[in-house]
Amino acid sequence: MKSHFEVSEKLFELYHRVHKLINESMTEEGVSLARSKFLFFLSKLGPCRSTDIADALSFAPRTVTEAIDGLERDKLVERKPDPADRRAKIVSITQTGRQVLEAAETPRKQVLEEIFSALDDQQLDQLQSIVNSLVRKADDIRLRREDEKKH
């Protein structure tokens, strides 16, 4: 019987392989997976400060600033003064950014469809149930640790 560690190592291996395949496919369409995270966030949330992006994506502020610099240089996002705070800038996705994000979404979905086609419907249902259980357990552990830090 496999240990928890062995199974978790296989899950990490799968994650990294899928991540690499998706990143390669999306990059061919003009935006890496990392850059698409920023664009996706801005397309869903709307214009916001870079600090909001850093908080939401759990990135260091400097990382976000550097990413936004590159996205702005490529005309995928734009910065405008924040009317509520003249020291801050509001970042928003441009029409070009939306188009690039949309174009990159197709190969991402194709890669995932191809990978998960290895499973039949019953296996997919089982996998979803298993993943949901693991997500709940991870959330429980995170909440417990946050609670322990408070006390």
UniProtKB/TrEMBL annotation:
<dbReference type="InterPro" id="IPR036388">
    <property type="entry name" value="WH-like_DNA-bd_sf"/>
</dbReference>
<dbReference type="GO" id="GO:0003677">
    <property type="term" value="F:DNA binding"/>
</dbReference>
<dbReference type="InterPro" id="IPR036390">
    <property type="entry name" value="WH_DNA-bd_sf"/>
</dbReference>
<dbReference type="Pfam" id="PF01047">
    <property type="entry name" value="MarR"/>
</dbReference>
<dbReference type="InterPro" id="IPR039422">
    <property type="entry name" value="MarR/SlyA-like"/>
</dbReference>
<feature type="domain" description="HTH marR-type">
    <location>
        <begin position="8"/>
        <end position="136"/>
    </location>
</feature>
<keyword id="KW-0238">DNA-binding</keyword>
<protein>
    <submittedName>
        <fullName>DNA-binding MarR family transcriptional regulator</fullName>
    </submittedName>
</protein>
<dbReference type="InterPro" id="IPR000835">
    <property type="entry name" value="HTH_MarR-typ"/>
</dbReference>
